[in-house]
Amino acid sequence: MLMKLHWFSRAEDRLDAWVTRQHQELVLDGKTAPVGPCPDDAFLESVARQSKQIALSDPRVDHAANCPVCMRRLLELRSQHQSRRRRLVFRAAVGCCLLIVAAFVVVSWRGANTPHPTDNMAAISETIDLSNAGTLRSLPSNSAQPSPLQSVLLPAALVRVTIILPRYSRLGQYTVAVTRDQTVNDQLAHDDANATGNGDREEVSVDLDLRKSKPGFYFLATTHEQDQASYYYPLQIK
Ligand SMILES: [Zn+2]
């Protein structure tokens, strides 16, 4: 049914076009008698644009439809209007394509520059200077009073921490951990690394993943490989 209707309407369109063409030829050959004077160009332009402001009952429409001069001008204006519209459509299409390309470039550029969560490149570098820091030494047999200490501050992020060890620390491997209390049992993060440097200045660099840590007060524990006890430094995660 739809197919039939479609065919019917196309056949009707063809018939209309044929009748229009026949009529146009008659008009252009001067075989019709227009009534009244020729309307101005602005009016013909409105007709060519098929402006809704033009009423078909307007006598000027009837004149233009039967006047060879107006008809020629109308055909000219219509083809100008159509090519202008085609240019606009083409420009709009090109503009859309450019926008899509630009959006794609921006999205892929952002994608390439978004740091991967586990990418070490995203680690924040922090340096902790413990060269003059007091420590809380946890010894099982000793409940020593803590000495006044300065708190170390770290962000809740993936951090590459370089610790400048207290003077005269031993070289070798250290385990660095962030703990909730002064035991290494309850850790938020830890990493091992070898100390480098000399007696005046030794440092150890470790990667600590503190992204899941809640802001608050913790301890930074350092443990030398040959030492049973750990050194604890107050640490604040912001
Ligand atoms: Zn005319």
In this entry the ligands are: zinc ion
* Nearest-integer average pLDDT: 83
- Listing every helix as H and every strand as E from the N terminus to the C terminus, the arrangement reads HHHHEEEEEEEEE
Distance between the termini: 72 Å
Shape: rod-shaped
Structural class: alpha+beta
* Radius of gyration over C-alpha positions, nearest whole angstrom: 43 Å
How many strand segments? Answer: 9
Compile the SSE list and pairings.
Layout lengths: L1 H27 L12 H8 L10 H8 L1 H46 L10 E6 L6 E2 L14 E3 L3 E7 L7 E8 L7 E11 L4 E8 L6 E9 L6 E7 L1
Parallel strand pairs: 1-4, 3-9
Antiparallel strand pairs: 2-9, 4-7, 5-6, 5-8, 6-7, 8-9
The site of zinc ion (ZN) has 6 residues, from helix 4.
What can be said about this structure in brief?
By secondary structure, the protein is of the alpha+beta class. Helix content is 37%, strand content 26%. The chain is built from 4 helices and 9 strands.
Describe this structure as you would to a colleague:
With 238 residues, the protein is of the alpha+beta class. The chain has 4 helices and 9 strands, in the order ααααβββββββββ. Strands 1, 2, 3, 4, 5, 6, 7, 8 and 9 form a 9-stranded mixed sheet that branches. Strand 5 and strand 6 form a beta hairpin. It is rod-shaped. About 5% of the residues have low confidence.
Give a quick set of tags describing it:
single chain, 238 residues, alpha+beta, 4 helices
